[in-house]
């Protein structure tokens, strides 16, 4: 399986302001002072090897949307955040160039605004030959998607979409086989409930767990998630807040921390943790620091366990599972 | 994990020592609760001297968090003192400096 990240920001889409781009260019020019680059490749090598990721790039600002490549035929899409618009455009390209299927299997963590706002801009929904299947733990998924396209909120009604759209409600604890991939879900602590998803194929396991609050004193929650994450090859976790924020000012807001994510992955014996659902007020430098601190915390907390690889997600990241 | 108690100008002091691992969580939390109860009856500050702590597991952080929450109900402030550099970094990664006072010195009674 290949996991592709189309949107990694939490809660609200963000875009860099003019000064942020200027600051990056000034920083790069100052860091390169006295250096010369023979060609573009040398300049790119400087950016990619001598600067932090957030100095030479942006983590991006689209809200939650991931894609899994590896199903037998269809597109597998996790959540409909604002990153979905670009995925839809790219799907048209791949269908045209690669003869891909026009079947889209969606798997929804939950129905909050930042996780569904991309659907009205998903081009394939207007394709009369497309087949969209929305898998969710929520029985009210269709109502949420219809509601955001009511006239008061959006000019194009849900019923004007041309694709064949169907909704399937899945049950936690059951194991489903969807187009060559085994799929499971489990409920998470979040307003109106969210669901973690586990996708398994060929002995590899990928877990997508966003918008989940893990309370430090909730031992049953810890045990349940360690079991769900057990020996996973890749786990995407909600790391929106610091541990202190998550237990004080932002307690009960439904999100978690890098520290809790490392703890759960260590307990589960997972191999790789992806930091995800970045706080919209965080700058690229803030997210660089989050990554560095998480790497250090993992080392402090490892204590004889196998190392847990830490990856910080950004819009356009691709990871092989 | 070992535990000793003393007093300071700020209030009662707990001195854990060694590794506070997952298995020691409940014992650690019990000592923290005892210290908070002592402080509630007097100085309103309970100092946890971390100078002899080598490592603190996630469960130990959890115990601190639970104790802090309970201490707030008794109007008691928990002060973390003298963590080694690695432990201080773990506390700072967790942003515990925003919810606990972390100090480098303790003035013991009789000093």
Identify the notable features of this structure and list them briefly:
heterodimer, A: 321 residues, alpha/beta, 7-stranded mixed sheet, 14 strands, 31% helix, B: 111 residues, 6-stranded mixed sheet, 3 helices, 6 strands, 37% helix, 30% strand, globular
Helix/sheet category of chain A: alpha/beta
Helix content of chain B: 25-40%
**What is the number of E strands of chain B?**
6
- Subunit arrangement of the protein: heterodimer
Portion of residues in beta strands of chain A equals: 15-25%
Count of DSSP H/I helices of chain A: 10
Largest sheet geometry of chain A? 7 strands, mixed
Mean pLDDT of chain B: 93
Q: What is the mean predicted local confidence, pLDDT of chain A?
A: 96
General form of chain A: globular
Give unreliable regions of chain A as ranges.
none
Most residues in contact: chain pair: A-B, 21 and 18 residues
| Overall morphology of chain B | globular
């Amino acid at each position: 399986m290949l996991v592709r990240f189309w949107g990694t920001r939490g809660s609200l889409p963000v875009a860099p302001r003019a000064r942020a781009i200027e600051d990056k260019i000034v920083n790069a020019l100052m860091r390169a002072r006295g250096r010369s680059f023979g060609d573009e490749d040398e300049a790119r090598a400087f950016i990619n090897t001598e600067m932090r990721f957030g100095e030479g790039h942006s983590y991006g600002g689209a809200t939650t949307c991931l894609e899994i490549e590896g199903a037998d035929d269809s597109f597998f899409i996790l959540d409909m955040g604002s990153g979905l618009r670009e995925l839809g455009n790219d799907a048209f390209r791949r269908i045209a160039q690669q003869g891909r299927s026009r079947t889209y299997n969606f798997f929804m963590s939950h129905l909050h605004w930042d996780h569904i706002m991309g659907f009205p801009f998903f081009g394939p929904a207007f394709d009369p030959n497309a087949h969209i299947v929305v898998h969710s733990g929520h029985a009210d998924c269709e109502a949420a998607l219809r509601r955001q396209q009511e006239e008061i909120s959006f000019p194009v009604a849900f019923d004007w979409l041309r694709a064949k759209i169907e909704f399937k409600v899945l049950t936690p604890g059951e194991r489903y086989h969807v187009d060559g991939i085994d799929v499971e879900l489990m409920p998470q602590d979040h307003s109106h409930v969210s669901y973690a998803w586990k996708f398994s194929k060929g002995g590899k396991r990928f877990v997508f767990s966003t918008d989940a609050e893990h309370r430090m004193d909730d031992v049953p929650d810890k045990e349940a998630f360690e079991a769900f994450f057990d020996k996973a090859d890749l786990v995407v976790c909600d790391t929106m807040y610091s541990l202190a924020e998550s237990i004080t000012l932002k307690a009960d807001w439904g999100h978690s921390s890098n520290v809790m994510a490392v703890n759960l992955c260590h307990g589960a014996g997972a191999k790789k943790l992806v930091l995800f659902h970045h706080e919209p007020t965080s700058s690229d430098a803030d997210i660089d620091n989050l990554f560095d601190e998480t790497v250090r915390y993992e080392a402090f907390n490892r204590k004889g366990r196998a190392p847990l690889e830490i990856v910080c997600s950004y819009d356009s990241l691709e990871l092989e599972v | 994990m070992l535990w000793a108690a003393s007093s300071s100008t700020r209030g009662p002091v707990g001195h854990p020592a060694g590794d506070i691992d997952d298995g020691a969580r409940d014992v650690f939390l019990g000592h923290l609760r005892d210290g908070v109860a002592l402080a509630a009856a007097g100085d309103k500050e309970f100092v946890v001297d971390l100078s002899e702590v080598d490592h603190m597991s996630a469960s130990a952080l959890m115990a601190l968090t639970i104790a802090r929450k309970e201490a707030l109900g008794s109007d008691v402030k928990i002060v973390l003192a003298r963590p080694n550099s690695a432990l201080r970094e773990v506390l700072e990664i967790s942003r515990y400096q925003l919810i606990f006072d972390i100090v480098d010195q303790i003035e013991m009674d009789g000093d």
